[in-house]
């Protein structure tokens, strides 16, 4: 301790008149403290030694009439910095690695997108010379519809389908409701059932319709009502699918999936409140007629939201029952980490094609051509 005390005393003597004494203390004391504990393994022992060091330095500050809030604060900061220096260095290293990994993920997403687009373009080009050209194109659009989130054309596809419906002018609200239900359902169904994904998909679709409604005021009410109620139905259908698939989980993977089921159960809590909050956010961001219309829709959503809430509660209860069943069978053991769904972006022309495809399907539904529409969509 005498060596430390002498070093600190010398620092004070050399910098007594320095206007930046507090800064000097912080830098020098940190170096002294790091050297003092560099070979100590126990954190408790490090803290004990550093506290004794701090007391010695505080006494020296008092003897030199330099004890004040600034010098004392700098001394404490230096001591704490020395204690956490190695941990912070490791933290910054991990942060740097995280940023590098995130960049690699973004690059890989772009690679996935390019590969998907190239495959689609090749199939579309080759199909022109095939007898089954119409069948292949319909199937290709069906695949794109199921990959809207992955391809990054969710907003564009929604807008193209809505604009196509408005241009046709028949059963606008019902057509948009059916289209949006399919868009939201397929987008959610493509990845993990999480609050974040549902919120992103819902916000994207609602905002896409708000942009059109604010421009096309003549049909704004039909556009927004169809979008809101279609989104609700799409979310409800996706949640219902989750419940129905519980019985299909193979026995051999139940122990791996149990923890993941608990996460999904937590994600479904208060989904109805999240739905309303997103509608309110979209209403607030609108600078046109959509603000008023969305707020009016929100006030009349009670029955529809209750149905969504009930579906969510039923699914959460079913998941809880399944987890209890797995627990009783003693297969609730290790937590499994799941792979994130790759999300990429696609060209706007694909959105136009899929949007038109959705419009054709909806037209078939509304005209009573249920079988044809089911074949095109490969519905359950």
Features:
380 residues; single chain; 2 domains; disordered C terminus
Strand content: under 5%
Domain count? 2
Task: Note the gap between the termini.
Answer: 78 Å
Q: Helical amount among residues, as a percent range? A: over 70%
Mean pLDDT: 78
Estimate the global geometry from the Cα principal axes.
Answer: elongated
Q: Main beta sheet: strand number and arrangement? A: none
Gyration radius from CA atoms, angstroms? 31 Å
Order of helices and strands: HHHHHHHHHHHHHHHH
Spans of 5+ residues with little confidence (pLDDT < 50)?
A: 330-348, 365-380
Q: What class do helices, strands and sheet pairing give?
A: mainly alpha
Number of helices: 16
- Number of beta strands: 0
Describe this structure in words.
This protein is mainly α. It has 2 domains: 2-94, no CATH class; 133-377, no CATH class. Helix content is 79%, strand content 0%. It has 16 helices and no strands. The N and C termini lie far apart (78 Å). Mean pLDDT is 78; it is low at 330-348 and 365-380.
In short:
By secondary structure, the chain is mostly helical. The protein contains 16 helices and no strands.
Describe the secondary-structure layout.
Layout: H1 2-15, H2 21-37, H3 43-63, H4 69-127, H5 133-145, H6 148-151, H7 154-168, H8 172-189, H9 195-215, H10 220-245, H11 254-267, H12 271-285, H13 290-299, H14 302-328, H15 348-366, H16 370-377
């Amino acid at each position: 301790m005498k060596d430390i005390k002498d070093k600190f005393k010398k620092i004070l003597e050399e910098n007594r008149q320095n206007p930046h004494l507090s800064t000097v203390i912080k830098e020098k004391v940190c170096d002294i403290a790091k050297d003092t504990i560099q070979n100590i393994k126990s954190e408790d022992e490090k803290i004990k030694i550093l506290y004794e060091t701090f007391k010695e330095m505080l006494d020296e500050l008092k003897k030199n009439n330099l004890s004040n809030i600034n010098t004392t604060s700098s001394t404490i900061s230096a001591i704490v910095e020395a204690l956490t220096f190695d941990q912070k260095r490791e933290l910054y290293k991990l942060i740097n690695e995280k940023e590098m990994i995130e960049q690699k993920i973004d690059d890989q997403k772009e690679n996935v997108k390019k590969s998907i687009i190239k495959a689609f373009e090749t199939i579309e080009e080759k199909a022109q010379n095939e007898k089954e050209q119409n069948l292949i194109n319909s199937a290709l659009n069906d695949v794109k519809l199921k990959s809207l989130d992955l391809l990054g054309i969710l907003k564009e596809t929604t807008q193209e389908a809505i604009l196509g419906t408005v241009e046709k002018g028949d059963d606008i609200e019902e057509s948009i409701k059916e289209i949006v239900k399919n868009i939201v359902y397929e987008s959610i169904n493509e990845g993990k059932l999480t609050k974040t994904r549902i919120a992103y998909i819902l916000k994207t679709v609602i905002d896409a319709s708000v942009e059109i409604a604010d421009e096309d005021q003549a049909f704004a009410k039909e556009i927004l009502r169809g979008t809101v109620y279609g989104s609700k139905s799409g979310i409800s259908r996706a949640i219902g699918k989750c419940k129905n698939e519980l019985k299909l989980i193979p026995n051999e993977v139940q122990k791996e999936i149990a923890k993941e089921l608990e996460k999904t159960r937590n994600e479904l809590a208060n989904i109805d409140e999240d739905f309303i909050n997103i509608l309110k956010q979209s209403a607030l961001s609108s600078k046109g007629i959509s603000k008023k219309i969305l707020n009016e829709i929100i006030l009349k959503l009670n029955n529809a939201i209750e149905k969504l809430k009930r579906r969510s509660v039923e699914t959460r209860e079913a998941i809880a029952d399944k987890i209890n069943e797995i627990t009783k069978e003693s297969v609730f053991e290790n937590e499994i980490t799941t792979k994130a769904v790759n999300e990429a972006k696609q060209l706007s022309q694909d959105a136009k094609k899929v949007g038109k495809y959705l419009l054709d399907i909806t037209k078939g539904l509304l005209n009573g051509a249920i079988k044809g529409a089911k074949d095109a969509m490969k519905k359950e």
